[in-house]
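INFO  loader      accepted 1 record
INFO  loader      residues=188
INFO  predictor   begin
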Amino acid sequence: MLSTRKFYKKERKEFKTKCLLILLAIHFLQCSPISDDSDFNKKSQIIEKIESISIQSKVNQELLLFQKAIFLNSVNISEDEFSINKSFYVSLDFKLINSENYGILIIYNGKECKELLNKYTKSVFFDDCTYLLHNIENEKKDFLILKKELNFLKDFLVQFPSTNLKIEILERIKIIEEEIKSGVDIID
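INFO  predictor   done
INFO  writer      dumping tokens
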């Protein structure tokens, strides 16, 4: 009788583990970036994802703005897709940038981050949005002045000493310092 209980206990534990793995897989699929399907399908996927974020974050406006900004920043849009649905993408704050080094880029301009920074100065996402906006601005440039970037990152850590981005920023600082030591001033 005891061995039967152990068997069912083990079965239950394996079942719970499988259920947890399935839930994690479903969550991952829901959070994954938009795939590069047809133009119409991409637009509808973006609309669905924004609606999903809006429903999940209905109560917390700060969370809604932050999640929407993170999602939109992860969306890759081709030049053709942008021209076909220009008014849709412009309404989401995407911009077409003509870069000397990289050609034509379509980037998210950070509307939700800007709104969060203006409305919620004490938000727990304030540092995240500040950093995301900085990276968005860097994307618009044809080059990156390493000493200026290094100063920004160090100042950021002073301004937000307990940021959840600290490890990422420290790694970036290390890479930039190595580049500067090797004689590189600008990355284009």
